[in-house]
Amino acid sequence: MLTRRLIGASLIVLCSVGTVFGLRRAFNKPVDERAPAFRVKGAPAPAKITVVEFSDFECPACRAAEEPIANFLKAYPDARFVFKNFPLERIHPWALPAAEVAECAGRQGKFWPVHDSFYKHQPEWAQSPTPEQDLQKLAESHGVDAKQLQSCLQDPATKAAIESDVQEGRNRWVYSTPTFFVNGKRFIGGQQLAEMAPLWLDKHLKK
Amino acid sequence: MSAPAMTKQAHADPSAAPAWLPWAGLAARLVVGAVLVVSGALKAAGAPEEFAIVISFYRIVPDSMVMSLAAILPWIELFVGWALILGYFTKQAAAAAIGLSSVFFLALLSTKLRGFNLPNCGCFGATWHVPPSATMGLDAALIALAAVALRHGGRRASLDNW
C-alpha cells in the first residue's frame, strides 16, 4: 500500500516537473520583440541580446534613462534595442500626442532624431501652453515633412500602432516607465538597467 | 418517512447510480486537472518575479509573502492538477481544486469590487491573457466540475483503484 502511494506521488512530481520543462521550451517566450523597423536599432535579429523598452515621452524617468541606455548599448554592441510606446495618459496628457508625432516621424525615417529631441527638450514642451505645436515644430526641425506629418496624424493606423504597444505592455503587467525587458527579464527604471541588467546578463550569457 | 424507507435509502447500492456518472466524473476530473496543470506550468515555467508582480496587483497578500506565494502557488496547481488527471487521492485533490478555484474567484471578485482595472487575470503566465470576467466564469465552471469529480471522479481510470 505504502509503495503504491509512493509510486503515485513520484509519478505526480515527475509529470509536474516534466510539464514545466516541456512548456518552458515551447511557450515561455520573452516579451514580443516585433516593432516597426524604424523603432529598432543595434544588432539585427536574431540578436544574442535584445532590450525592449516601454517608454513615455513625457516621463522624466524615461528622459533620465537615456544615458544608461546609451551606456548599455555601448557596453553591449551586439545588443538589439526595441522601443515601445507606453504613454501614461492619466499623468502625462501630452505623452500620447508625442508618441504619435514620433511614430509619424518614424514613417519618414526620422524616428531616432525626433525621439532624442523629444527627451532633450521634454521640460520645455511638457510645460508649454502649446505642447502639440511645439512637438510638431521639433519634428519639423529634424526634416519631417509637415504635410505628410498632418496626414499621418489623421491616420487611424498611427493610433493603432501605439495602442498595440500599450496593450502588449499591459498584458506584460508593465505599470511604470521606463520598463526594460533584457532577454525577457524585467528591469524597472534606468538605474536597474545600469546596475542590475549587466550582472544578470553576464551570468545569463555564461549559461 | 417510515423506518424501513430510511433503511432502504441509507443502504442504497452505489452501483444503482446511472452508468454514465463515473464517466462524467472522469471527464470532470480530466478537464479540471488539465486547466490546473496548464495554468500552473505556464506560471512555473516563467520567472517567479513575473508572477509576483501579478500577485502584488491584487493587493491581497502582504508584500513579505508575495514572492514565496509566487514561487509555491504554481506548483500547488500542478500537483493538484496531475493528482486529478491520474486519479490519485481523487477526493482530496478535487476538494483542493474547489479550494483553489474559490480563492481565485474571490480574489478576482474583490478586485472588481474595489474598482481595480486588471489588464488580465495573470493566471496563465505570459502566454495567455484572459480577461478577469472570463476567468471568473472559468473558475465557477471549475468549481462545479471539481464538485462532480469529488462525488464521482474516483471510479474510472484512477490510481486510487490500482
What does this molecule look like?
The complex is a heterodimer of chains A (207) and B (162). The mean pLDDT of chain A is 92. In chain A, helix 4 packs parallel to helix 7. Chain A is 58% helix and 12% strand. Chain A is an alpha+beta fold and 207 residues long. Chain A has helices at residues 2-26, 60-64, 66-75, 95-107, 111-120, 122-127, 131-140, 146-154, 156-171, 189-195, 197-206, and strands at residues 40-42, 49-55, 79-85, 179-182, 185-188. Chain A has one domain (37-206): 3-Layer(aba) Sandwich (Glutaredoxin), CATH 3.40.30. Chain B is elongated, with a radius of gyration of 19 Å. In chain B, helix 2 runs antiparallel to helix 4 and helix 3 packs across helix 4. The N and C termini of chain B lie far apart (40 Å). Chain B has one domain (21-161). With 162 residues, chain B is mainly alpha-helical. Chain B is built from six helices and no strands. The A-B interface holds A 4, 8-9, 11-13, 15-16, 19-24, 27-29, 31, 170-173, 175, 185-186 and B 37, 40-42, 44-47, 49-50, 53-54, 57, 75, 78-79, 82-83, 85-86, 88-89, 119-120, 122, 125-127, 129, 159, 162.
